[in-house]
Amino acid sequence: MTSKSQQLAVCERLRIAYQRRFDLVDGGVNPWANSTTVGVEILFGQQGHRAWDVSARYGRRRWPFGRAEEYRSIEEAEQDVRSELDAFLDTRLREKGIDSSPTPPE
User: Fold this and answer.
1) Can you give the chain as a three-state secondary structure string?
2) Per-domain residue ranges for the chain?
3) Can you tell me the distance from the alpha carbon of 56 to that of 14, in angstroms, rounded to the nearest whole number?
4) Torsion over CA: 66, 69, 75, 76 (sign)
5) What angle, 0 to 180 degrees and rounded to 10, lies between the N-to-C axes of helices 74-96 and 4-23?
6) Cβ neighbours of residue 7 closer than 8 Å, sequence gap 6 or more
7) Longest dimension (CA), the chain
8) Which of 70, 42, 36, 71 is nearest to 56 (CA)?
9) 44: which strand partners?
10) Which of 66, 62, 72, 68 is nearest to 34 (CA)?
């Protein structure tokens, strides 16, 4: 079972890895994780309105309030999220004429 500290660590890694690149496209990142899913909300505009989000599951619940069951690691879900973020950023940065070097995993 993934602990709350592992979930927070994934969020922090994603924030650190992507904030600089999203700053280049006038955006922000709001990573989140829970007992079954990892995700990132992408924020644009002065008010920080959510414009896009990506998430990946690593577990499921058998019923609404049941115990979470993991079927892969939170790190695998994090890699899926990173792949989606890199593809999104590549397009946005290319549109702005900025080098779109991928963010290495930490």
Assistant:
1) CCCHHHHHHHHHHHHHHHHHHHHCCCEEEEEEECCCEEEEEEEECCCCEEEEEEEEECEEECCCCCCEEECCCHHHHHHHHHHHHHHHHHHHHHHHCCCCCCCCCC
2) 4-93
3) 13
4) negative
5) 10
6) 33, 34, 35, 38, 74
7) 48
8) 36
9) 27, 49
10) 68
CB 92 within 8 A of CB 74: no
The token duo for 9 is 């660590």
* pLDDT tens per residue across span 45-88: 766 566 789 999 999 988 888 889 999 999 999 999 999 999 99
Q: What sign does the dihedral 3-5-106-96 (CA atoms) show?
A: positive
Cβ-based neighbours of 24, under 8 Å, separated by 6 or more: 93, 96, 98
This prediction has a pTM of 0.86
What phi and psi values does residue 81 have, to the nearest 5 degrees? -65, -45
